[in-house]
Amino acid sequence: MDEAKQEELFWKKIEAEEKIEPKDWMPEDYRKNLIRQISQHAHSEVIGMQPEGNWITRAPSLRAKKVLLAKIQDEAGHGLYLYSACETLGVSRDTLIEQLHQQKAKYSSIFNYPVLSWADIGAVGWLVDGAAIVNQVSLQRTSYGPYSRAMVRICKEESFHQRQGYEIITQMANGTAEQREMAQDALNRLWWPSLMMFGPTDKDSPNSAKAMKWKIKRESNDLLRQRFIDKTVPQAEILGLSIPDPDLELQADGSYKFGEINWQEFYDVVQGNGPCNKQRLDHHIKAHNEGAWVREAAIAYGMSKSKETIAA
Amino acid sequence: MDNAIYNYALRMGDTCLILSHRLAERCSNGPFLEEDIAMTNISLDLLGGADLFLSLAAEVEGEGRSADDLAYRRNERQYYNHLLAERPNKNFAHVMMRQFLHDALLHPLYTGLKLSKNEHLAGIAEKGVKESAYHIRHSSMWIVRLGKGTDDSKEKLQDALDDLWTYTGEMFEYNDEEATLAKDGVIPSFEELKTTWLKTVKEVFNEAGLEVPKDKWMATGGRQGVHSEFLGHMIAEMQYLPRAYPDAKW
């Protein structure tokens, strides 16, 4: 089949809401765009292990420690499915990690903010996972089959994470004066960065139009952000915590008008100038380099085993 | 209160808790993602075991303390874990060797404890035996892989064994109280466990091409609450929130 015909078939599938599968023909730009988005998502899951891991050894009860360990393990698992989904597009995990280390690939800018108190662990689950779910629920309908299926699995676990985060923040908001203060402080620091997780406004989002046409992305940044705000503000009200936005206002249609996001901060963090960018990347590089001899040993052992099998 | 069961449950709980904590410190430091997941998974299993043993100890004590009180409100002199569990995460070979030396004990221990005349201990072992079967498979596989991998990995692994061997003697120390428990079929015999453990570790080290260190001086003290300097730091970190905010619930 010539390329024009193949492209026609590709668009027919997209129109008909059929999934594109790894063996199907796809435009090179579609593939590139997917690799960029899925790898960014995979790296986010993996880098996200660091801020939460920062509190495992200080989790304040056996139950809290178990839940946090299980949660981080889930995130690492999500990273794995997403790397695998990316590999179906013909790029190896090693290459993806190299791109991360060379800062050619990005991860969610939210993880460049520090997680400073136990209430932050609650806020990360409540706000960060809460924002991630809004985005990921929408991505369950993405046009690329392996990505869509990974999202379905991930959404199930993320909604559990969001509830466990809300449980921590609830306990703290209803706890001692000091705990309540920590809860409000966590919300103050993490609210705006959580809104930034949805990316630039639609008019400034360079990748969005194409991704929407290909149905990689199903809903716009602004729409998803609004959905998150409308869902989260009442949850904060229940806890008696205040959203750090003086312009926040309930409108007649039940949605919230909100203040101007500090886009300068967003672009600074995306470009590497956030509070923890260097720390996160350095940690990943260090762990990867320290593990090199282990990976080499495993490969050497694997090769000697397969030689034995062939000889036998 | 049944002192013997309390002490036994506390020792087991502490060893599981401290070993779990050391593995948890490795989160996001694994050599690759699958192994990072395996480590947190094993850490989580051990933490579950710690919770069960400490809950039993708290219940036997009968003074209204919880497993959390035992974990978060005792100081290092009141901790009775094996010294081996608190050895630092020097590198992947050390972590895996420390884990293997424990797994080779915990698996037969749970297998024996499943038959305990104490139904609480038998119940804990029911869960532990399944998990520890996976743990020992995982760590012994790595011992062989690193032992037969590259010259570098073998050297690192042998170093780890030479360093850690001295902390294994303590795992088989027992007192009169425990001898009675073993005689009464409440816990497995320490002597038998040692025989099984030695057989397992020698087999695996042999396959991995490692030299078993000659019997030498064995460190002791953990069972009496006399630890290395490392434990105080671990506990200070672990207990920071409940100690700093004693009235708070988490």
Short summary:
Chain A is mainly alpha-helical and 312 residues long. Chain A has helices spanning 3-15, 28-47, 49-53, 62-87, 93-101, 118-139, 145-173, 177-196, 208-213, 221-239, 263-270, 277-290, 292-311, and strands at residues 249-250, 256-257.
Q: Which chains share the greatest interface?
A: A-B, 45 and 49 residues
| Shape field of chain A | globular
Low-confidence stretches of chain B: none
In the CATH hierarchy, what is the architecture of chain B at level 2? Up-down Bundle
How large is the radius of gyration of chain A?
21 Å
Helix content of chain A: 55-70%
Structural summary, described in words:
The complex is a heterodimer of chains A (312) and B (250). Chain A contains 13 helices and 2 strands. Chain A has helices at 3-15, 28-47, 49-53, 62-87, 93-101, 118-139, 145-173, 177-196, 208-213, 221-239, 263-270, 277-290, 292-311; strands at 249-250, 256-257. In chain A, strand 1 (249-250) and strand 2 form a beta hairpin. Chain A is globular and about 70 Å long. The mean pLDDT of chain A is 95. With 250 residues, chain B is mainly α. Chain B has a single domain (2-244), classed as Ferritin. Chain B is globular and about 55 Å long.
